[in-house]
Specification:
Structural class: alpha/beta
Oligomer: single chain
CATH topology of the largest domain: Dihydrodipicolinate Reductase, domain 2
Distance between the termini: 42 Å
Number of domains: 2
Strand content: 15-25%
Helix content: 25-40%
Number of helices: 13
Shape: globular
Radius of gyration: 20 Å
CATH superfamily of the largest domain: Dihydrodipicolinate Reductase, domain 2
Number of strands: 16
Order of helices and strands: HHEHEHEEHEHEHEHHHEEEEEEEEHHEH
Length: 395
């Protein structure tokens, strides 16, 4: 039987058609990329599915970022990828000589695309080498590691950005702006559902189901999208959470992590946000915002492409609105490049990743106590609202 799709396969699937759409190709032809000499150089650390299928192709069309180096524990694979992308032999690094990037002026940003348990080590090494860091989410597996990453960025006077691509994605920004203007009245409730079927025959799922390597199984891999979405949709922080888990321990996938987790955030404005994640239910990445006069349904909400928004008002659903075509990863890396240049504010800093980690820990704590209320008002407030600064037309 064919293997089940991984998270990255799932959220990339709908983006294939968009990437090949004539409109997207025409837009790219009309807006040529910047000359290579003006671009910020990125080193990609880890050559798995995301790097090969999304990040490296995105760097080819990015306007302000370019591929400068690759880092991998598989030398032959790294050499092949470098050659395919026109990189010289000295732009190939292994984990054993990773520190050598300190002497490579072609690299300004290091993008960490490794299993979660390796994020902190390689992020801190990059800062010691004097580089800026863009790190995949969740940013680490422990709060101590996340805090160490933030401290290392400050000590090096370098930027740490967490790869929350939805902060830069057109449909998500559209929903944020609709909510800021209260176009359908006040928000009353948010529902987020993020999950899929995990597959132990897929090596990328093996580490996601490993408690130490992933730090949270489905919650860290898929649930983090819902945790973060509730927060950026409202531009608020939850003050309390209750959560429940249901896991079949006879299923070989769930020896070390929880499976189905449901939670409920309470926000200062009175909004209730219900969240769900699982590694054993049908693939879904969607959210629904219920307002006083209607609903906003994003389904899918967080695919790599092909996202779609349905507005329901007066009991009538308007025709679904597809998200504008565009490469989310190119947008995200271009934003990081502009942050490095001092031309854009930092929208998703390390503190944003730390907040989600603390909230996910609170979810697990509540679930372990069968839904006991856990207070979550730690005083964190988002420094920059994506809806207010990310220019959809320009980014």
């Amino acid at each position: 039987m064919p293997s089940r799709p991984s998270r990255r396969d799932l959220i990339a699937a709908a983006g294939v058609a968009a990437a090949l759409a004539p409109a997207a190709a025409k837009a790219q032809a009309q807006e040529p990329a910047m000359p290579t000499s003006d671009k910020i150089g990125f080193a990609i650390v880890g050559l798995g599915k995301l790097s090969l299928n999304q990040l490296i192709p995105a760097l080819k069309i990015a306007k302000g970022a370019r591929l400068a180096a690759v880092v991998s524990g598989h030398p032959e694979k790294a050499k092949r990828v470098a050659a395919e992308n026109g990189l010289p032999a000295d732009a190939v690094y292994g984990y054993d000589d990773y520190d050598r990037i300190a002497k490579d002026p072609r690299i300004q940003v290091v993008y960490i695309v490794l299993p979660n348990s390796m994020h902190a080590e390689h992020t801190i090494k990059a800062f010691k080498a004097g580089k800026h860091v863009l790190c995949e989410k969740p940013m680490a597996t422990t709060l101590a590691d996340a805090e160490a990453m933030i401290a290392a960025a400050k000590a090096a006077d370098r930027h740490l950005m967490i790869a929350y691509r939805c902060h830069y994605e057109a449909q998500n920004l559209d929903v944020m702006r609709r909510l800021r203007t209260r176009s359908m009245g006040k928000v009353r409730q948010i529902n987020t559902t993020m999950g899929r079927q995990a597959d132990l025959s897929d090596p990328s799922d093996v580490w996601r189901l490993d408690g130490k390597m992933s730090g949270g199984g489905a919650l860290g891999d898929m649930g983090v999208y819902g945790v973060n979405a509730a927060r950026y949709l409202l531009n608020e922080e939850p003050v309390a959470v209750q959560a429940w888990a249901q896991t079949d321990r006879s299923d070989p996938r769930f020896k070390e992590t929880e499976d189905l987790i449901n939670w409920q955030f309470r926000f200062p404005s009175g909004v209730i946000a219900n969240g769900s994640t699982s590694f054993a239910y049908a693939p879904t990445m969607a959210f629904e915002v219920i307002c006083e006069q209607g609903r906003l349904v994003a389904d899918p909400a967080a695919f790599y492409g092909g996202n779609r928004l349905t507005v329901v008002k007066g009991g009538q659903a308007l025709p679904p609105v597809p998200a504008p075509a565009g490469d989310q990863f190119a947008r995200e890396m271009d934003w990081m490049a502009d942050v490095v240049r001092g031309k854009a504010p930092m929208v998703s800093p390390g503190e944003e990743g730390l907040q989600d980690m603390r909230l996910m820990q609170a979810i697990l704590e509540s679930a372990a106590k069968d839904g006991a209320t856990v207070k979550t008002d730690w005083g964190y407030r988002r420094a920059v609202d994506p809806a207010g600064v990310v220019d959809v037309a320009k980014a």
